[in-house]
């Protein structure tokens, strides 16, 4: 009898409106797309409404409830107002109708919400995201009105994100109902894969000052560290959160770490040159060979030849004294050169130790300050931009 009526349009009352009551909602966060800043969720709605056309007299039909096929009666449409993609499916092919015209049904809404999640504190990010539930649009006084009563979260942990709480709310004049979803990232995995490697690489760069300046081992090691960190950033570029109103500060963190390591490498290269020459001489300012050098070489050759020529004129004692003077002069020059190299190395070591302590202090201070900013700072985002745009329109 009920199926034969064919009531597949909205029930009509005197005021041409229909109240859709939702006594219970189950919300589940499927995933959070941090790259595109989208919230993918599933909502199970237990809905009920009254249809006078489906009433019957129990004296004629002694049944208080019956089940009817969904496609044989009218059912309301629920969708997510701020969703990029929103689809509603029936949890069952049948619904329940009571003798007084009260209809019970369960629908499932799968939605992909454009939620500008605050990723500034990533990987310590936490934010809220509204999921607006709407029925069909009202034309004047006709249409449907939605009444939400209770919501309950299910499957709170999905991947790196955890659903802290879900709360019902209204926006505007009470005609826009939404579920405010509180999300928090579980920072263990992002911390191990993103922050911890940067801390260890910078720590290794600090410890590399224990290597000697001479020989080039330190410079080669620092260059290897910089190249490794660059490759690390290239690999993680696709996994980092996308840019939004509050861009993740971890991008700036990676940039500062790379600048610190490159600065440390350049200072090490400069100090290696200082340890060798006692100063910095670029290729265009390097010492040139003076013309007198050739003359001095000729004088040395003459000095070596003259003893051979005048050996007949000198006795044994004078020849020995000349040889001894040459040996003493050579040793004095060698000792002076050795002392000069030691002074260069001592000066370079002093600069190296000074830069080491400065670098250590800057690195520790930076990591403490950056961690504090990531944990404590709050970036404000207007999550109801979609409602404001509709109101202005």
TrEMBL record:
<feature type="domain" description="Neurotransmitter-gated ion-channel ligand-binding">
    <location>
        <begin position="20"/>
        <end position="134"/>
    </location>
</feature>
<feature type="transmembrane region" description="Helical">
    <location>
        <begin position="356"/>
        <end position="377"/>
    </location>
</feature>
<dbReference type="InterPro" id="IPR006201">
    <property type="entry name" value="Neur_channel"/>
</dbReference>
<keyword id="KW-1133">Transmembrane helix</keyword>
<keyword id="KW-0472">Membrane</keyword>
<dbReference type="InterPro" id="IPR006029">
    <property type="entry name" value="Neurotrans-gated_channel_TM"/>
</dbReference>
<feature type="domain" description="Neurotransmitter-gated ion-channel transmembrane">
    <location>
        <begin position="194"/>
        <end position="274"/>
    </location>
</feature>
<dbReference type="InterPro" id="IPR006202">
    <property type="entry name" value="Neur_chan_lig-bd"/>
</dbReference>
<protein>
    <submittedName>
        <fullName>5-hydroxytryptamine receptor 3A-like</fullName>
    </submittedName>
</protein>
<dbReference type="Pfam" id="PF02932">
    <property type="entry name" value="Neur_chan_memb"/>
</dbReference>
<feature type="transmembrane region" description="Helical">
    <location>
        <begin position="191"/>
        <end position="213"/>
    </location>
</feature>
<feature type="transmembrane region" description="Helical">
    <location>
        <begin position="249"/>
        <end position="271"/>
    </location>
</feature>
<dbReference type="Pfam" id="PF02931">
    <property type="entry name" value="Neur_chan_LBD"/>
</dbReference>
<dbReference type="GO" id="GO:0016020">
    <property type="term" value="C:membrane"/>
</dbReference>
<dbReference type="GO" id="GO:0005230">
    <property type="term" value="F:extracellular ligand-gated monoatomic ion channel activity"/>
</dbReference>
<dbReference type="GO" id="GO:0004888">
    <property type="term" value="F:transmembrane signaling receptor activity"/>
</dbReference>
<keyword id="KW-0812">Transmembrane</keyword>
<keyword id="KW-0675">Receptor</keyword>
């Amino acid at each position: 009898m009920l199926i034969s009526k064919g009531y597949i349009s909205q029930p009509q009352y005197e005021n041409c409106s229909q109240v859709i009551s939702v006594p219970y909602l189950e919300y589940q966060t499927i995933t959070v797309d941090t790259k595109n800043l989208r919230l993918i969720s599933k909502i199970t709605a237990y809905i009920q409404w009254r249809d006078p056309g489906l009433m019957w007299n129990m004296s004629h039909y002694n049944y208080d409830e019956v089940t009817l096929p969904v496609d044989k009666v009218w059912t309301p449409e629920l969708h997510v107002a701020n969703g990029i993609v929103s689809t509603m499916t029936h949890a069952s092919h049948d619904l329940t109708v009571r003798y007084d015209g009260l209809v019970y049904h369960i629908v499932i809404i799968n939605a992909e919400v454009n939620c500008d999640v605050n990723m500034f504190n990533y990987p310590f990010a936490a934010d809220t995201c509204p999921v607006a539930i709407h029925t069909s649009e009202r034309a004047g006084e006709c249409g449907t009105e939605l009444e939400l009563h209770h919501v309950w979260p299910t499957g709170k942990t999905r991947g790196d994100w955890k659903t802290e709480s879900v709360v019902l709310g209204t926006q505007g004049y009470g005609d826009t109902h939404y579920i405010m979803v509180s999300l928090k990232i579980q920072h263990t995995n992002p911390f191990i894969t993103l922050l911890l490697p940067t801390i260890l690489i910078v720590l290794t760069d600090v410890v590399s000052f224990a290597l000697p300046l001479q020989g080039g081992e330190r410079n080669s090691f620092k260059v290897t560290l910089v190249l490794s960190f660059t490759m690390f950033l290239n690999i993680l570029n696709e996994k980092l959160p996308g840019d939004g109103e509050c861009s993740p500060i971890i991008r700036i963190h990676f940039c500062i770490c790379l600048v610190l390591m490159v600065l440390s490498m350049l200072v090490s290269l400069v100090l290696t040159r200082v340890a060798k020459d006692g100063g910095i001489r670029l290729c265009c300012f390097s010492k040139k060979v003076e013309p007198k050098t050739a003359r001095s070489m000729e004088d040395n050759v003459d000095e070596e030849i003259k003893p051979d020529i005048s050996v007949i004129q000198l006795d044994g004692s004078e020849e020995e004294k000349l040889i001894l003077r040459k040996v003493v002069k050579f040793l004095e020059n060698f000792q002076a050169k050795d002392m000069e190299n030691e002074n260069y190395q001592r000066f370079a070591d002093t600069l190296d130790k000074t830069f080491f302590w400065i670098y250590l202090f800057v690195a520790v201070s930076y990591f403490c300050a950056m961690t504090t900013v990531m944990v404590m700072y709050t970036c404000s985002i207007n999550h109801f931009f979609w409602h404001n745009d509709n109101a202005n329109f």
